[in-house]
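PROTEIN DESIGN WORKSHEET
SECTION A - STRUCTURE
LENGTH: 415
TOKENS:
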């Protein structure tokens, strides 16, 4: 098996803790900003477009298209936001990146500001990210002392809720409002922070921007697959020998991720399935060697998501796991969209009925409800909550059938 060792965002380091500005510059960090500081913003945006960079927050939206919306808007002020509001169970890649490589994130944010015409940036974190905030504050101080802050950057924190990481909920939190998603349109690139054009990118996306600005679009686009360029950060759980955050290029496989990076499953367990991220559909073990890419996973009913991998082995109670996931989304939905409230609550109700042995019928009810609710919320939580549940019903139909049982026996017939 080919060893995958492409490292764009997580280079090997002798030190621990946050990377200093001196250490970052020693490996070429900051060269992209120096190159584009006085360059043509449209040319920088074009470089990101040619790189075919897609968002790393889970939605995989083309980064250049998002930038173009704000860049083309006419306004007296524009903003850029680095979104590090990570709160999905099983995903630690944003926390890891900000804590260890804050300068890459901040350079990407400054470059995004240059390309879109922004005059101020924000680094958005969750309020329990104390280590990450300290690393970012130190990095900002270093940049300021070195005269490298091309626009002011402020750190803002949102509440420890899942929905607070959605881009428009983050904007509300920065404005001091409840961290709940906004109805779209208008999109943030049209009317975001304080009604001004705003570009919101995940922190991993922006770290890639810094690399592209330094090395060029062609170098980035040469890594990965036809539709999925560059590398992706993955979080492996403690069910493998070496849990943690790893970086692999698109086109690598989950077998390589689990075996080469994670050292395989603990205790000699056998893999049944993979959940690429909590908001995705399941993959069966037979797909271990499918290249990880948007275009290869889409036909299988899933996506790489944010890379927060969960593994299902022969000891996993998949019905209980599905209930756990459904309960998470039920708790974390913000309550402002009736279809989302209904769907997430009813998913739990139907799944628990199956878990309690109350007979068949649950799959049809869940599928009908998911079809009815699709795209009816202010954000994508409706779809995110449905994906793992529908995937579980498909992949583990026999497990659910055994748990649900045949239902109540027919009533006796009167003579």
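SECTION B - SEQUENCE
RESIDUE ASSIGNMENT:
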């Amino acid at each position: 098996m080919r060893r995958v060792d492409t490292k764009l965002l997580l280079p090997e380091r002798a030190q621990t803790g946050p990377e200093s500005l001196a250490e970052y510059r020693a490996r070429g960090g900051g060269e992209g900003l120096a190159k584009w500081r006085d360059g043509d913003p449209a040319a920088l945006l074009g470089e990101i477009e040619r790189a075919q960079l897609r968002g790393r927050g889970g939605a995989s939206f083309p980064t250049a298209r998002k930038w173009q919306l704000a860049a083309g808007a006419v306004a007296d002020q524009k903003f850029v936001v680095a979104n590090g509001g990570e709160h999905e169970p099983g995903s630690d890649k944003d926390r890891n990146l900000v804590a260890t490589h804050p300068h890459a994130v901040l350079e990407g944010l400054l470059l995004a500001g240059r390309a879109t015409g922004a005059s101020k940036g924000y680094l958005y974190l969750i309020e329990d990210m104390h280590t990450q905030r300290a690393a970012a504050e130190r990095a900002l101080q270093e940049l300021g002392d070195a005269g490298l802050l091309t626009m002011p950057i402020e750190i803002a924190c949102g509440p420890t809720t899942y929905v607070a990481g959605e881009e428009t909920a983050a904007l509300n939190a920065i404005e001091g409002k409840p961290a709940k998603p906004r109805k779209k349109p208008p999109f943030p690139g049209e009317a975001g922070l304080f009604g001004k054009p705003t570009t919101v990118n995940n922190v991993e996306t922006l770290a890639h921007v810094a690399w592209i600005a330094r090395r060029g679009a062609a170098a980035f686009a040469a890594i990965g697959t036809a539709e999925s360029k560059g590398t992706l950060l993955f979080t492996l759980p403690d069910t493998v020998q070496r849990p943690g955050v790893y970086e692999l290029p698109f086109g690598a496989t989950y077998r390589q991720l689990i075996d080469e990076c994670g050292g395989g499953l603990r205790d000699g367990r056998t893999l049944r399935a993979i959940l690429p991220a909590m908001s995705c559909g399941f993959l069966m073990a037979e797909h271990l060697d499918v290249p990880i890419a948007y275009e290869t996973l889409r036909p299988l009913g899933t996506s790489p998501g944010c890379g927060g991998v969960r593994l299902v082995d022969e000891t996993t109670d998949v019905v209980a796991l599905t209930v756990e996931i459904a309960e998470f989304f039920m708790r974390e939905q913000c309550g402002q969209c009736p279809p989302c409230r209904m769907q997430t609550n009813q998913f739990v109700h139907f799944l628990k009925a199956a878990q309690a042995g109350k007979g068949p019928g649950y799959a049809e009810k869940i599928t009908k409800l998911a079809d009815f609710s699709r795209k009816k919320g202010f954000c994508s939580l409706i779809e995110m909550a449905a994906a793992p549940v529908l995937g579980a019903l498909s992949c583990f139909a026999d497990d659910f059938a055994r748990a649900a049982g045949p239902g109540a026996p027919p009533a006796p017939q009167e003579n």
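SECTION C - NOTES
Residues 94 and 358 are 41 Å apart (CA to CA).
The radius of gyration is 22 Å.
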